[in-house]
């Protein structure tokens, strides 16, 4: 079951916002499995003490993270020159020190031409792009400077769900 997007979107990945939205969703949907998807860059940099708060979270499920930003998650759906251009960001140290989202958004627009902050092009999600995501899982940035435990990767979760529910296509 998918929850209403508008009622349950936190608007930012800061720990306090996610905790409040989770509480609302949990109250309204006690018998549902609720996943929390957010970007890892805030936790990587410990913006708003997000890493410290996450390390001491109680009563919340483990988060599923985009490593590092939603823009990086989008880049994992690409191939060829677009994907190689995204990988080159690692050569500039971005994967170890992710830039705040506005700066990174400009870079991703060069790679995914139709990208606009906060949305995907209508034709973005295709079988080909999902297969790219599966093929590119190992390229997700791995840095975790605060050594947070119990962190999941949303891309891994999504591919796992696709394989589970559509094995004829995604295995």
Q: Can you give a write-up of this model?
A:
Strands 1-2-3 form a three-stranded parallel β-sheet. The protein is globular and about 45 Å long. The chain starts with a helix and ends with a helix. Helix 6 runs antiparallel to helix 7 (101-111). It is 49% helix and 5% strand. The protein has 171 residues and is mainly alpha-helical. It is built from ten helices and three strands. The model has no long low-confidence stretch (mean pLDDT 88). The chain has helices at 5-8, 15-28, 41-45, 50-55, 70-75, 80-91, 101-111, 127-136, 154-165, 167-170, and strands at 37-39, 64-66, 152-153. It has one domain (5-170).
Largest sheet entry: 3 strands, parallel
- Distance from N terminus to C terminus (CA atoms, Å) equals 23 Å
Provide the helix percentage.
40-55%
Rg over CA atoms: 16 Å
Taken from the alpha-carbon principal axes, the silhouette is: globular
Query: Would you list the SSEs in sequence order as H and E?
Result: HHEHHEHHHHEHH
Number of helices: 10
Number of domains: 1
In short:
The longest helix is centred in the N-terminal third of the chain and has 14 residues, at 15-28. Helix 6 (80-91) packs antiparallel against helix 7. The protein has helices at residues 5-8, 15-28, 41-45, 50-55, 70-75, 80-91, 101-111, 127-136, 154-165, 167-170, and strands at 37-39, 64-66, 152-153.
């Amino acid at each position: 079951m998918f929850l209403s997007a508008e009622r349950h979107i936190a608007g930012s990945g800061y720990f306090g916002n996610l905790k409040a939205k989770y509480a609302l969703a949990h109250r309204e949907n006690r018998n549902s499995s609720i996943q929390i998807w957010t970007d890892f860059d805030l936790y990587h940099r410990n913006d708003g003490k997000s890493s410290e708060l996450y390390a001491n979270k109680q009563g919340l499920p483990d988060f599923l993270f985009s490593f590092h930003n939603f823009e990086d998650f989008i880049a994992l759906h690409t191939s060829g020159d677009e994907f190689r251009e995204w990988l080159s960001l690692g050569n500039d140290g971005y994967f170890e020190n992710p830039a705040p989202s506005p700066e990174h958004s400009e870079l991703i627009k060069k790679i995914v031409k139709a990208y606009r902050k906060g949305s995907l092009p209508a034709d973005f999600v295709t079988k080909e792009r999902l297969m790219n995501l599966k093929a590119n899982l190992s390229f997700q940035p791995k840095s975790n400077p605060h050594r947070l435990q119990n962190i999941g990767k949303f891309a891994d979760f999504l591919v796992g769900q696709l394989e589970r529910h559509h094995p004829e296509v995604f295995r």
